Amino acid sequence: MAFAMGPQLLDGCVLAVLSHGDAYGYVLTQQVKERLDISESTLYPVLRRLQRDGLLKVYDRPYQGRNRRYYAITPVGRTQLARRREEWRQFRDGVEELLKEDEANGQTYLFG
What we know:
By secondary structure, this protein is of the alpha+beta class. It has one domain: Orthogonal Bundle (Arc Repressor Mutant, subunit A), CATH 1.10.10. Helix content is 54%, strand content 20%. The protein contains four helices and five strands; from the N terminus they run αβααββαββ. It has a three-stranded antiparallel β-sheet with strand order 1-3-2. Strands 4-5 form a two-stranded antiparallel sheet. Strand 2 (56-63) and strand 3 (66-73) form a beta hairpin. Helix 1 packs across helix 3 and helix 1 crosses helix 4 (75-99). It is elongated, with a radius of gyration of 18 Å. The two termini are 19 Å apart. The relative contact order is 0.15. The model has no long low-confidence stretch (mean pLDDT 88).
């Protein structure tokens, strides 16, 4: 079963990858795609939006006669990532609480 991924969560995932270091577009999309079932065509608009919002900066570097476009998280992006991580923890904990089974009486809270 696939779960829908909202833009805030996807933004947080991209920012999390870039928090480990700058990356050019192809490598960044591959790193995200290794963990999430998402297309490259979905990620590039996310990158443009994050750049527009000041969460990422973009720069080009020459590589084998061509330019590669690199993405880097900004200080504002790091602040936003910290918020997204906290929001995710709260959401995850709430979902886990709803999905857990009550071992005392064998009741499942969701669909139970």
